[in-house]
Amino acid sequence: MPSRRDYCKRLALTAGGIGLAGCATTLSDRTDPAGGPGTGDAPTTPASDADPVDWTEFGVDSGNTGFAPGNTGPGDPSVAWTGIGSKATVNCSPAVVDGTVFVGGDAVYAFDAESGERRWRYQTGPFVPCAPAVVDGVVYTAHSDGAVLALDAETGEAVWTHETNHNLWSQALTVHDGSVYVGTAGTMPAVVSGDTDESKAGLLVALDADSGEKQWEFGATDWFTGPAVGDGLVFAGNEEDRFYAVDVETGEEQWRWDAKTFAAPPTYHDGTVYVGLHGSGACVALDAQTGEVRWRTDLGTPNVKCSPAVDGDHVFVAGKRTTGVLLGGGEDDGTETETTEPATTTASGPAADGNYGRLQALSVADGSVAWTYDSDGDFRSSPAVTADAIYVGNGEGIVSVARADGSERWRVAFEKYVNSSPAVVDGRAYVGCADGNLYCLADEA
């Protein structure tokens, strides 16, 4: 693991009830970590001339690609401000739109992106695990008791509420072409029961974005991840070890694929769906229209709770291991769709005990490994990607590595772990933390 530069920036101020405090550790000369940037083709997409975009939802778009080539993040950061400060963890990812940061925790919050001043707070009662999506002046999110919320982005006032009568544990919902798509868990109230009990049955639900009226629902026997949308289909996996593609207009099943196990939203890009397999430690590329397996790469980390990010050339996927769990890919996964045997790549790495994280760049063409970044802090969040850098949370805080080769740019340590996927906008990175705070990281003015 690389050694840290021998300084730690700390800032402790309070202004208008907003706490500002942080410790940023930045590495300019990096020693490759164990197993560290590997051989292979680096990403070929050049630094883009694309315009910067708002980070409107989890993964920046309805496909969850996590790629914003026109956006920039900090290069030598410290903590500019913190918000919320609750006892509840802040696991959901923030959205940043029109100079405002929206995030959930013990409530739904809006903060000024520059100063951190709180603009409004909407109290939900239940915990908010679901990343907000902000479209046409409305904030869409959902709380753990299964209510989907539409809030006015300026005032925080409720526009509508839809009760699904299910629990909700998914990391994100998706808004696309006037519809809100959300995955739920079991029926309300939550019941501890056997694997076949109806209380564990989940739904994929489509709601009208203007009214909250239900358009369709698709049911299964266990809870759903958040969805991705593309090619006229909604994609989601669930805990019954099945991955589904359903028609975006009708909710009718188009195909399914069996594997072990899905814990994070999938990613859609250019006719392919990329999924992380939490139960067997792999990343798989599926044909979006047929479900045919194009390739599979065993990652060397058995726990994959993160969505892949895709830039068109490479898939960036993070995984983790914990003490007592063996490294390496799990059993082979089948598919209900007729297909040829997919190409399989196995990533190498250390077999040491303890927590361990791995971030990899895989070729979109065949899943081959371009580079690998290994970390002592296990990776828990989905990567956010800009033209030159990748940002991802782990068990110690947040890490940024170079998109070209995986070399470490900097690390920022917090008091607790980060599950939240960062939002990277206007030279800043915004990320939630298990210590109950939303952090804004920025270069010093």
Characterization of this structure:
It is a single chain. The chain has a single domain (9-443), classed as Quinoprotein alcohol dehydrogenase-like superfamily (Methanol Dehydrogenase, Chain A). The chain contains no helices and 37 strands. The chain has strands at 9-10, 13-15, 18-20, 23-26, 77-84, 95-97, 100-104, 108-112, 118-122, 133-135, 138-142, 147-152, 158-163, 174-176, 179-183, 202-208, 214-220, 228-230, 233-238, 242-247, 253-258, 267-269, 272-277, 282-287, 293-298, 309-310, 314-321, 343-346, 356-363, 369-375, 384-385, 389-393, 397-402, 408-413, 423-425, 428-432, 437-443. It is globular and about 50 Å long. The two termini are 30 Å apart.
